[in-house]
Amino acid sequence: MSKMEALKLSLIIISLLLTNLRSIASSPHNHRYNVGDHVPLFVNKVGPLNNPSETYQYYELPFCGPDPVVKKEESLGEVLSGDRLTTALYKLNFRENKVAETLCHKKLEGDDVAKFRDAVINDFYFQMYYDDLPFWGFVGKIEEDSWTLEKKSLKYFLFKHVQFDVLYNGNQIIEVHAIGDPNQVVDITEDVGVDVQFTYSVVWNTTSAAFDTRMDRYSRASSLPIHLKIHWFSFINSVITIMLLIGLLTLLFMRRLRNDLRTFSTGDEEDDKEVGWKYIHGDVFRYPRNKSLFCAVMGVGTQLLTLVCSLFVLVCLGILYPYNRGTLCTALVILYSLTSVVAGYTTASFHCQFAETGWERSVLLAGIMYAGPLFVIGSILNVVAVSYGATAALPFGTIMVIILLYAFLTIPLLVLGGVIGYLFRSEFQSPCATKRYPREIPPLPWYRDTPCQMFLGGFLPFSAIVLELQHLYASLWGYRIFTLPSILFIMFIILILITAILSVGLTYIQLSVEDHQWWWRSVFCGGSTAIFMFAYCIYFYTRSSMSGLLQFSFVFGYNACMCYAFFLMLGTVGFSSSLMFVRYIYRAVKSE
Q1: Rounded to 5 degrees, what are φ and ψ at 147?
Q2: Global confidence as pTM
Q3: Within this chain, do residues 294 and 389 fall inside the same structural domain, yes or no?
Q4: Which residue blocks in 30-93 are alpha helix, DSSP H?
Q5: Strands 161-169 and 194-206
Q6: Containing structural domain, residue 43
């Protein structure tokens, strides 16, 4: 082989290697493209602007579509989030400008026109994904044709031209927008057929924004200074509230509790002369009624606390962030299954402190205590979504995946935790011996009954978090993105602290009037904040623009599940803090 031939062969090999390296370096997986490369675009869903949960598949409206329509394979979390990504006719190759490109010619029949008109009347928007970036646009517009004092006439128009504005930095896409051209519309006021030529344009512009910050624009509106001031005002308000509660309880313990401890005597003759919480030391550690149910509440409450804390850890690590499709739902499902071992262990170990047998029933109750109501409510909501044809309706395959996940992961981990709790069981540590027969509780005024204590125990924590709750509901049932998870985590810690402090105070007041049935009441008082949270959900819904059975069902159904979870978590916190306090004071009087 001559030198010239060897040189040519070397150049060919080098060019092939460079071509391969170029194709490897540019792909949808690493979001790097060369000029003219195909960039994946998927259409997702359409829906009314005022009802975020009421969404339908994109081609439920008679848009131009490929034949056949190919659905993108989606994760469990994407399906649970209502995403239904499918292919489209739009071709937005990297850095290729297009002007008035024809998408398709379509004959809209009367029924098609009626569908588009209903969508325009209800402010329908569409959502698409381009290079994993979500963007939105409106289907059409409404204009006033003419009006008098008696009658106003409206005309409805469909956008037949969409302009895509794309920003790029180097070989990466940073931002994308879709804008319907108000000058290129079709009148769809009447149910008459019409021929429409759908077109689109693509305009590419450079930007200096970095690829790592391209998701920041979705949260920019939620991070305005006024919103940050409201967040910090809520945080400062909560801190002041908890400081006042700590000061109040400190004053209570300094002046009354220490005096009570000094005057206590354990002699039988003097025992009858004692009054208040010292008088019932033989009944205060009597096991509660419905012991298995109580243990299950403690187990599930501890599990949900672990799940929420794990979610905050994932947020801090950057794994969960806004518009990372389906990751939040996926994380919730997997974490619930994994933390079931915590529920089993806590339930069985707590039950075995009272009795060595029957812990299996408590673990079984723990397995269905939250999953049972969630399954029932979810099934009802799925039936409603199916009747509407909404994307929130879960396919049969997804339902089977959830059932199999619960059967082959959640239940085994729950049982494993229960077995571990039984093997490492310990006896209940009671500073005072329990008498054989319970002492009769003296008559109490109405304001010392459980409902009044629940109102006090729930209202104060709720007042400390109400502003943050408004932002949370606006994120769940609106389009605002919650951008300050650190403040949300601090508020969650403050909520737990206030609940614990109030539960201790209310338990002390209850014992002071010789009412020894504090076990269940501490759970109800601690979890009563969830009742106020659900009541605020009703207020939030009435003040919003949401309407319709589907949106109503989803708002109140899922909020009921969320508030029920908070009831179990805060009820567990209320009892645990009260138990520590009761053990402390009776251990102190015993040492005297």
Answers
A1: -150, 150
A2: 0.87
A3: yes
A4: 76-80
A5: parallel
A6: 37-213
